[in-house]
Specification:
The structure holds two protein chains of two kinds.
Chain A lengths: L1 H27 L12 H38 L2 H4 L3 H16 L9 H39 L6 H41 L2 H6 L3 E2 L2 H4 L8 E2 L2 H32 L2 H16 L2 H22 L9 H26 L2 H9 L4 H30 L2 H6 L17 H9 L8 H35 L1
Antiparallel strand pairs in A: 1-2
Helix pairs in contact in A: 1-2, 1-5, 2-5, 2-6, 4-5, 6-17, 9-12, 9-14, 10-12, 11-12, 12-14, 13-14, 14-17, 16-17
Chain B lengths: L17 H46 L4 E10 L15 H12 L6 H8 L6 H11 L7 E7 L2 H8 L15 H12 L3 E5 L2 H4 L12 H32 L4 H13 L4 H15 L7 H25 L3 H9 L4 H29 L3 H5 L20 H10 L3 H32 L4
The chains are: A mainly alpha, B mainly alpha.
Chain lengths: ~450, ~425
């Protein structure tokens, strides 16, 4: 339905453009005299079109946001008193039933007459709202067209007005990043604070036991489940450490080889392939880790007499490490290439071999940049979700044994939040607390990395 | 390699200074270290490439068979008592298939045995018959030959994914069923056909009936929302920050924000979507609209960063020339700078879209993981996307889903490689060096 309204708005504002364009040309006495206008004719058209579209669009957005809330309230007021005194959860369930009934869908229980009547009422209101929306939006649009059309005249500075609107749009677009960050912080923080009201924060941060599943069975909220994040956090760090143990040497060495040793042809061939490695969706790595690497490690372990869990930290870490290799290697490649050639030449001229030059001159000079890259890699490893969801375990074991199954922060967030759950249990709220930890942790890592990289860049520019 | 000249003539008598002798004594070792280091670098590259090759080979080996489906040829009597012109759509076609199977194996009598026999073919076999009848209603009352899809267990055995020599207790198919399969095979009644279902149907609990069309449509709608929002907003933000923004604290803050958002874990965006779009704004769960909004926020930093880089590459002389002939700043930017920077921005957008296409975690958070059979027809319908479908299938217990998962991965990778190739082509075709 909004699609149709948008379409008709589009048609209307195109008409407005044509009207404005024509009117101003007529006023000035034909296209031949267009240069007597204060702005080019098309700016007048655009001006009228903006008047026609922008206020109507704004109203449409506000309406679409408010409509469900207002409708709910109206329907609630229509219900008999007995229903209105229900607790909020029951009430929202009832509202769902009413909406489903109005849509002609399935309801959770045999509908009572009052509910059926409410559904009928809801449907009537919906129809009414739909018509009202059409009328209001279209008339506002027409009104805007009229206003804009009246405003233009020969010496009217249409360009300045249009550019002002454009400028506002540009500024608004650039602030979205800030709003996103604010949105993330608030949505995560808000729910996390609700969680900390149920579970004290020290228990969450320093508790040694994590078993959120118990919380839903017991009725008393927060009293039963254990929400100590230490084992989850240890698991995350363990897998991230394994991953970095793979990614740092492989990534760094291949970056060194590619930038210092490889013939031009090899470099030109290998770099895009490493980029492919970086572009593979993580769910593919996860599938590979869960179905190939995991069983392979298990069989390997059995053959040497070790018991390896089929969802071992090693399998997830190994594959995650490979995933991060191109990331580390491309960042290191950049900083190694940024080291001025004078340094290399000086070292070589003194008789050092290439490897000595790399180890004693190039790497120390590039170290801050490389460290920054590695930190970004760590933040990736900690935030990586799909590989661990598919290949790591669910139960939180407090262990550093890479052959055992551990769980991670991201795995817990996914398992706690996927599926329908009430939004108030500490179980779902715990996911947001974990999300807060994850966000803060990666934020700190990113900021350190960015600062380090930026500082380093200033050195050689 | 830059071997010093002196290395060619190792000893020239006692006239050489002591330093040279010390250096030369160590040379052998240093060259060995050099070689080792070089080899180490090479082996790191080879290691990464070998892993990639191994992964691709593994997925292709697992997935290529999914493009074929085992079918069984049945002689089927289209009983006019069951199917007549009045009930063409709802007739019991599956029943016809069952009776035909009984006719092929008249020795089967027991209830348990019969059920096992029926299980040779898919529960979607009736649909294949129905299609045949709908195509040509004159077959009613005749015996026709029809290929129907086999059950996934049969499919696995025929494709050789399940070893027939395993003890019976470790197979999903019993010895009896195996015997029937062998009989059918010897009659030439079992063949592997092009698996059209895989591309034309939605998800299903039955592996042989599951397809990726629903997920692909979901991905399409989601990406459409993402593209429609992130491209204009990303370009506008890049334009503002690069061309108009004054240098002050506020714009610094925006910059830091964008750089940081680019490195925030994707699952956190999912939490944002769950809390803001679903709980606060009350948008429909599992819909491509919400998925697209979340992915928009996630890809915006990529697009903005790429856009700024390509704006920076446009030389200032272009702006100066436009301004000097009386264009306003807006006109200079929109008429001259933007067209020159657009190819670079498009490249960045395509790369961002490719990443959005492969993204899974944030979509799990906004409920796009539901089991959805219907193919979504709009932005509000419940939908899932390709990577999530891969995740769901990878979780399924049936052996046949491994094959489907790998095949879906191959399709997803094909899309991604196409997109990336388009980006590379665009870059090479339109890139200008000033």
């Amino acid at each position: 339905m909004p699609g149709m309204i948008l379409l008709s708005l589009l048609v209307l504002s195109s008409a407005a453009y044509v009207l404005g364009h024509r009117r101003v040309l007529r006023m000035v006495g034909g296209p031949a005299h267009a240069r007597n206008l204060a702005s080019r004719p098309r700016y007048y058209g655009t001006y009228v079109a903006l008047w026609c579209a922008v206020p109507a669009l704004g109203l449409l957005l506000v309406w679409l946001f408010l409509e469900p809330i207002v409708l709910d309230q109206l329907v609630l007021r229509h219900l008999p008193d007995a229903y209105r005194d229900l607790p909020p959860e029951r009430l929202s369930l009832l509202m769902n039933d009413i909406k489903n009934l109005a849509k002609g869908g399935i309801v959770s229980a045999q509908a009572e007459p009052a509910v059926q009547e409410a559904a009928e009422h809801y449907r009537r209101l919906q129809g009414l709202a739909k018509t009202a929306l059409w009328v209001v939006v279209l008339s506002l649009s027409a009104l805007g067209l009229h206003t804009g059309y009246r405003k233009i005249h020969v010496s009217f500075r249409a360009r300045n007005q249009v550019e002002k609107v454009l400028h506002v749009f540009l500024v608004a677009a650039s602030t979205i990043a800030v709003f996103t960050t604010i949105g993330i912080v608030f949505s995560v923080l808000f729910e996390a604070l609700r969680f900390f009201r149920l579970v004290p924060w020290w228990e969450f941060l320093f508790g040694l036991k994590w078993s959120p599943q118990m919380a839903i069975r017991a009725d008393q909220v927060g009293a039963s489940g254990a929400f100590g994040m230490i084992p989850v956090f240890t698991g995350t760090l363990l897998i991230a450490a394994i991953a970095m143990g793979i990614a740092v040497p492989l990534g760094l060495l291949s970056a060194i080889y590619l930038s210092e040793y490889a013939p031009r042809g090899v470099r030109a061939a290998v770099k895009p392939i490493l980029e492919i490695l970086a572009g593979i969706p993580t769910v593919v790595y996860g599938f590979f880790a869960a179905l190939t690497v995991g069983p392979l490690l298990r069989r390997l372990g059995e053959s040497v007499g070790l018991s390896v869990a089929s969802e071992s930290a090693l399998a997830a870490g190994l594959v995650m490490g490979i995933m991060i290799v191109p990331f580390v290697s491309s960042l290191s490649d950049d900083v190694i290439n940024a080291v001025p050639n004078d340094l290399r030449d000086g070292s070589l001229a003194l008789g050092a071999t290439r490897s000595e030059t790399v180890k004693r001159v190039v790497l120390p000079a590039a170290l801050p940049g490389i460290v920054g890259g590695i930190l970004l890699g760590v933040s990736r490893a900690i935030g990586e979700t799909m590989i661990v969801v598919m290949a790591a375990g669910l139960s939180a074991n407090l262990t550093l044994n890479p052959l055992a199954a551990v769980t991670t922060v991201t795995v817990q967030i996914v398992t706690l939040l996927v599926g329908d759950q009430e939004f108030d249990s500490p179980k779902t709220l715990a996911a947001f607390a974990l999300g807060l930890v994850l966000f803060v942790l990666t934020l700190v890592l990113n900021i350190i990395a960015l600062v380090v990289v930026r500082k380093y860049r200033e050195q050689y520019e | 390699m830059n071997k010093p000249k002196s290395a060619a003539s190792p000893s020239e008598g006692p006239s050489r200074s002591r330093t040279v002798r010390i250096v030369q004594a160590g040379l052998e070792k240093r060259y060995r270290a050099e070689k080792r280091f070089r080899l180490l670098g090479l082996s790191a590259v080879v290691c990464a490439l070998a892993f990639l090759a191994f992964m691709f080979a593994d997925i292709i080996a697992k997935g290529h068979t999914a493009f074929q489906q085992t079918c069984v040829l049945l002689d089927l009597f289209v009983d006019p008592d069951v199917v007549h012109v009045g009930n063409l759509d709802q007739a019991d076609y599956q029943g016809l298939v069952k009776r035909s199977l009984e006719k092929h194996f008249p020795e089967v009598t027991g209830r348990q045995e019969k059920r096992e026999l029926y299980n040779l073919v898919s529960s979607g076999a009736g649909t294949a018959v129905r299609q045949k009848v709908l195509e040509d209603t004159s077959v009613i009352g005749k015996t026709i030959e029809v290929w129907v899809p086999a059950n996934d267990d049969v499919d696995m055995v025929v494709k050789g994914h399940v070893d027939r020599n395993l003890p019976e207790s470790e197979r999903r198919l019993g010895n009896r069923a195996l015997g029937w399969i062998e009989t059918l095979e010897s009659q030439g009644r079992i063949a592997k056909k092009w698996n059209k279902t895989f591309f034309t149907s939605g998800d299903s609990r039955e592996p042989e009936l599951a397809g990726i069309l629903g997920a692909t449509a979901g991905s399409f709608y989601t990406l459409l929302v993402t593209l429609a929002l992130s491209f204009p907003i990303g370009v506008a933000a890049a334009l503002y920050l690069e061309e108009f923004a004054p240098k002050n604290r506020w714009t610094d803050l925006i910059e830091v924000n964008i750089n940081n958002l680019a490195a925030v874990p994707s699952i956190v965006f999912g939490l944002l979507g769950l809390a803001v779009f679903l709980s606060f704004f009350g948008l429909p769960r599992s819909s491509p609209l919400v998925g697209g909004l979340v992915l928009t926020l996630m890809t915006l930093p990529t697009i903005i960063i790429a856009g700024r880089a390509s704006l920076q590459a446009v030389p200032p002389s272009i702006r100066d020339a436009a301004l000097s002939v009386g264009a306003s700043r807006m006109q200079a930017v929109f008429h001259h700078v933007l067209p020159l920077a657009l190819p670079g921005m498009l490249t960045g957008t395509i790369i961002g879209m490719a990443r959005a296409l492969g993204e899974t975690a944030p979509l799990l958070m906004v409920g796009m993981v539901a089991f959805i059979v219907d193919i979504p027809r709009g932005f509000m319908d419940p939908a899932t996307v390709l990577p999530v479908q891969i995740y769901l299938w990878a979780d399924s217990a049936e052996r046949a889903f491994v094959e489907k998962t790998s095949a879906a991965i191959l399709v997803l990778l094909a899309f991604l490689i196409t997109m990336n190739a388009a980006a590379v082509y665009l870059r090479n075709r339109f890139e200008r060096r000033w």
